[in-house]
Design goal:
The protein is α/β, with parallel strands linked by helices. Helix content is about 45%, strand content about 20%. It contains 15 helices and 14 strands. The strands form three sheets. A six-stranded mixed β-sheet has the order 7-8-6-9-10-11, sandwiched between helices. It has a five-stranded mixed β-sheet with strand order 3-2-1-4-5, with helices on both faces. It has a three-stranded antiparallel β-sheet with strand order 12-14-13. It starts with 9 loop residues before the first strand and ends with a helix.
Length: about 450
């Protein structure tokens, strides 16, 4: 897979609507690819859509739409009637014509809103002379740029390398017509180079896998220390406002940006002001429709925070007209990683962005009617955040019991652990030590008594 260059690309978005996809879902998917492109810093100057029974096996779109792409790429081909779209409507929409004159220059890339085969990408590149990236390649490039920790970088690179392997042959054909050519009955230099490239990739994947196994052990050790603590995992669609909510709940300086996949690394922080016993909040990687399966599997260790949490705070962007589909995608991914059984609190965020005060009040009432147990809020409203904080604390308080813990005078190092893991109601002294009257989870109480 070729990487998106640092220079701003001028791209045309290409999407084919098949009969199993309704108009609303199709429009939402195309718009989302546009947002993915903007996250990469790509200028989207045209959108080319077509209705077909299936993607064209050779070039994704039919001959007429292929000709239109050639025109957008600055070639001399003339767009004509598409003979194989069944007479269905197809459109070219220019998003910037008449504004900045961006369409005066040819496109330098094509972004396809589907996962396409290596040969389809090669055929499109040969026909148009520009770079072709499918939806998976765009998502992988965003992940590559946003990964910060060693684990996230290694996970992304493994998926990218696995994505690249089946495309090596097609890239070789595109760059050099005789790269794959060899003597009859034997391998030529091109085939040797291909095998060498594959071997290098396999070795690199093995190296990264070993590195991840070591990092995963460190993460398991860290999670084991937090196992008895009250933990909330923020999950949801990308750009739903999880990091903003994380910052509001914990006061931590987590990275916040109006971009897709701004967060790839799990961050764990306590609620602020601190609750007694302490409640930890973790921010996790966002989900997206058509998320490459390899990324879900690769980020399994990151998503283990959701599996081991006592509560999933499922954040939904209430201002997005397609929020119901996003909610459905999140549920599907949570089920795929085995987190469907974890208790869940639905949070409709960004309610302040739905419109004026009257529209906001109406939207709040409608959401409360359909999801009566959900929280409707804005992460930028301190009162809403305080109400959510109280609800999170109340959720974990249901399991607390009162009891006493006796700590000998020579074991006073346990005092900090008691205050962190329990609500201390009082303490008194006898000849042998301190007796703490506490409210805590039964498992914590049992462990402290045995310490």
């Amino acid at each position: 897979m070729s990487e998106v260059t640092p220079e701003r690309l001028r791209a045309a978005l290409v999407a084919v609507q098949t009969p199993d996809v309704d108009d609303a879902a199709f429009a939402a998917s195309v718009a989302e690819l546009g947002r993915l492109a903007r996250t990469l810093g790509v200028d989207v100057v045209a959108v080319v859509t077509q209705r077909r029974a299936t993607l064209h096996p050779g070039s994704v779109v039919g001959s007429g739409k292929l000709a239109e792409l050639q025109v957008l790429a600055g070639l001399t081909a003339e767009a004509g009637e598409d003979a194989d779209d069944g007479g269905a409507a197809a459109a070219v929409e220019d998003e910037t014509a008449g504004s900045d004159g961006l369409t005066d220059a040819p496109i330098t890339a094509i972004l396809v809103d589907h996962e396409i085969t290596p040969s389809q990408a090669r055929n499109l590149e040969k026909a148009t002379g520009v770079e072709v990236l499918d939806r998976t390649a765009v998502i992988l490039e965003i992940f590559r740029r946003h990964a910060r920790s060693r684990a996230a970088k290694a996970q992304v690179e493994i998926v990218r390398l696995n994505y690249l392997v089946p495309r090596l042959r097609e890239q070789g054909r595109l760059k050099s017509g005789d790269r794959q050519r060899g003597g009859i009955g034997g391998k030529g230099a091109g085939e040797s180079n291909l095998e060498l490239d594959r071997r290098k990739i396999r070795d690199r994947i093995a190296e990264l896998t070993r590195e991840l196994e070591g990092l995963a052990e460190e993460q398991r050790t860290q999670r084991a220390r937090r196992r008895e603590m009250n933990r909330v995992a923020l999950v949801g669609y990308t750009n739903a406002g999880k990091s903003t909510l994380m910052r509001a709940l914990t006061g931590s300086a987590v990275y916040v940006a109006d971009k897709l996949f701004a967060t790839l690394d799990t961050t764990v922080r306590p609620l602020v002001p601190e609750a007694k016993p302490r409640v930890l909040v973790s921010d996790t990687v966002g989900f997206i429709d058509k998320l490459p399966h390899g990324l879900v599997a690769s980020f399994k260790s990151t998503l283990d925070e959701a599996l081991e949490a006592g509560l999933l705070a499922q954040v939904v962007d209430a201002s997005d007209p397609n929020f119901e589909r996003q909610l459905e995608v999140t549920n599907e991914v949570l089920a795929e990683i085995g987190a469907a059984h974890v208790p869940r609190l639905l949070i409709f965020n960004k309610i302040d962005r739905v419109g004026d005060a009257a529209t906001e009040a109406q939207a709040t009432a409608e959401l409360a009617l359909r999801w009566p147990e959900a929280v409707v809020m804005s992460a930028r409203n301190p009162e809403d955040v305080a109400d959510l904080r109280a609800r999170l604390i109340a959720f974990f308080a249901r399991d607390l019991i009162e009891g006493e813990v006796h700590v000998a005078y020579d074991r006073q190092q346990l005092r900090g652990e008691i205050y962190a893991g329990c609500e201390v109601l009082g303490e008194r002294y006898d000849d042998t030590g301190v007796i703490f009257q506490v409210r805590a989870h039964p498992a914590v109480l049992e462990r402290l008594r045995a310490a």
